[in-house]
Amino acid sequence: MPASRAPRTLGFWRTASWGLLIIAAFFIGQLTPIGYLLFLLSSAGPLDSLNAYQQAVIKIAGSPATVALSAIMGLPGLLIPIYFAVRYTRLSFAEYLGLRWTSWKNVAFGIVGMVVILGAWELIPGLTGREEASSSFMVEMLKSAEGDGSVWLLVIAFCVAAPISEELMARGFLYRGWSDSFLRVPGAIILSSLIWTVLHLQYDWYALLNVFSLGLWFGYLRSRTHSTYLTMVLHGLNNLAATVQTMWLASGHS
Predict the structure, then answer these.
(1) What are the DSSP calls for 102-122, one per residue?
(2) Cα distance between residue 237 and residue 250, in whole Å
(3) Residues 240, 129: contact at Cβ < 8 Å?
(4) Extents of the domains making up the chain
(5) CB–CB of 97/168 below 8 Å?
(6) Predicted structure pTM score
(7) Each residue's pLDDT tens digit, 195-206
(8) How many whole angstroms separate alpha carbon 9 and alpha carbon 86?
(9) 143-157 burial: b if 16+ Cβ within 10 Å, else e
């Protein structure tokens, strides 16, 4: 009987190649709701002018419900290529991606570290005289969501779907393949954090540094606990805190 292939990780180049495909599938999944709504718009009949059509497209693409559905649909788009990539390794899906729980002690440790990092970034503007900028896009988005009753959908998208998708990709798939390559664990943490940061280019440079430092912390926790569930939970808590803060700003407080 021929010997079966031993389990293996994908290494650097296969992880990078599959990673590009996974990111592309992730964005295609996010564009699916927008494409479907635009198809419905075109099926409804021609509009009076090109300007009217452009305004309708902007309204559809920028609505809170569409943004939320796009974030949610990114998850299945990402899961499909990850599933086929992991099959090559002959390891279980859960084992390869670190889908295991950890101790509550590690959860508490992760939360404390995250609070310290976020607190430091909140203090820096006051110490350096830099004006603290809020995301006007998110403030306006939540104001609109409050008006049409889609706040709950945005919360699910930002605090559940987005953390699961991004952590599966960065701390799950990319970290696992690269940590067993010439990069080793430190290089895998840094590179996967950089990729994760690039996915947030809608922010300014200061916020991107915040994202990168948080990615380094999540990567360290992934290597320490071998649990992507932990980073998903912490990522979700971070997004929830940011959403609550933005809702507070959207309500008119200064």
Answers:
(1) --HHHHHHHHHHHHHHHHHHH
(2) 20
(3) no
(4) 11-250
(5) yes
(6) 0.87
(7) 999 999 888 888
(8) 8
(9) bbbeeeebbebbbeb
